[in-house]
């Protein structure tokens, strides 16, 4: 007995051919060993041991089973909700969600920018005023496409929402592009109206030459005869909503945005962003555990999908507050986070490296940041970031603007871009296939089909196109859309989206990024289309042939641009002329950092320019016999890359 001084006697006896009966004298009860109660009690320990053993086995062999299941269930439930809205023809867009939040929490800060606070109600009403101006003054109609060229500021959102309220699709233009690229972006999405920020009007010289383009700016006065002003018309506009039928849509697959992404065509491509994609992206913070009490820090450019779709859309979905930064500043980052009680921030890998390079202070872990959401974070920077700034959950997301596949590292394992498992593979079909880096092509078997790589091996990531994972392509060119697809990959008639990324999946299902293939590399957080750079440099009179690629630089994310050149016979290399041409016609991130002069341009067996060996050899003058040059902004020229200069670049003394 459990009680001192209490004696318990248990008697067993048999009654005929029945099972034993237990008489418990202390409690004066009989237990019939043939009763269900007895058998339940007798089997209970065995069941408990079995369950415990199963849990131990699961923990050892499948440690992420329940975490994976719960996370995927959360994501699938959201996706099913979206599909049900579509089936019932009651599509609720991100804009609708914003207007709901403006009704629910009108006085809550939505955007904090440069010390000023803009509530949900204020943004809603100002975008209403703009919508009325767009209808009455600009004569815009439902279905029109309008190009938006603005820096990060609250009026970017006001214009975006105002256009959406009158049923217009919006093309976000990269503020770094100029001249020919800008005109191309403007026209390929079918836009005839451009709205430009007050600080970017002076970059519109080529645009203004086009007679069929109407240009409006967020100013009260304009010195340009072809640039019309919006702010002077805004004061008299009503702040009441425009008719709801203007923004209404019956399909989740209706285009709502065009976001430009670098490609291999020589010019940016307008990725079609539908309401479905916008809504999926807006659920990112929520899926990772964000709440309406969070404050989100957005230092990335709004013309990219990360800041606009995930950042702004995610803030709206939660009903949270965002701190919008015009431009990222490593020195101001943590002060901003402390001042505004930031809890979530968006990043690219380069941003985190800049933060780690800042001088250490006693305040490094004095903040409320609990989560970072982004991509491109290197393992070494990841570890250093956590060690220095505290236990922040870094949530890597993999996916391209136009892609039909997304990985999310909800576990937080360092060095991986996402997580896959049995459940994920049942819903989203993707494969890693063998790729020959030297020949720059997919490896196929004797039947002409791709070959899957084994677990742990590096392969080209392909994502199957289906009703669950559709690919909406690019505006203005079916050829560009078709070029991103691979057909007859494993069987006749199938179609896969080619990500252009080399990835590896380990034995536990974690996805690791290895490299990019083809004609695009990443530098300073931007994708650089090598064909665009090649065509631009090819206009220089002394250049006969150009081969552009990216090379790794110690301590830097991505790859720095290098151009291998062949100089025309009878002419000489002119570093100053090349510098002037690059600065005038290329955005800063796309300008080649290094120049390599060659006499012969090597080709692959399929007559493509050989890049692999050039990429591998890097930019070390002691191991490369070809003349090398480096971009120098102080001398406004490309200057010879000496051994001393090389060492200063590698050590980080010379800034690129």
UniProtKB/TrEMBL annotation:
Pfam families referenced in this protein's UniProt entry, alphabetically: AMP-binding
A Gene Ontology BP annotation from the UniProt entry: long-chain fatty acid import into cell
UniProt keywords, alphabetically: Cell membrane, Fatty acid metabolism, Ligase, Lipid metabolism, Lipid transport, Membrane, Nucleotide-binding, Transmembrane, Transmembrane helix, Transport
Highest taxon listed in the record's lineage: Eukaryota
Enzyme superclass (EC): ligase
Residue ranges annotated for the AMP-dependent synthetase/ligase domain, each copy included: 99-419
The protein's Enzyme Commission number: 6.2.1.3
Membrane topology: Multi-pass membrane protein
Keyword Lipid metabolism in annotation: yes
Gene Ontology cellular-component annotations: endoplasmic reticulum membrane; plasma membrane
Keyword presence, Phosphoprotein: no
Subcellular localization(s) per the UniProt record: Cell membrane
Annotated GO MF terms: long-chain fatty acid transmembrane transporter activity; long-chain fatty acid-CoA ligase activity; nucleotide binding
Known catalytic reactions: tetracosanoate + ATP + CoA = tetracosanoyl-CoA + AMP + diphosphate; a very long-chain fatty acid + ATP + CoA = a very long-chain fatty acyl-CoA + AMP + diphosphate; a long-chain fatty acid + ATP + CoA = a long-chain fatty acyl-CoA + AMP + diphosphate
Stored PANTHER family: LONG-CHAIN FATTY ACID TRANSPORT PROTEIN, LONG-CHAIN FATTY ACID TRANSPORT PROTEIN 6
Family, as annotated: Belongs to the ATP-dependent AMP-binding enzyme family.
Protein name: long-chain-fatty-acid--CoA ligase
Organism: Nothobranchius furzeri
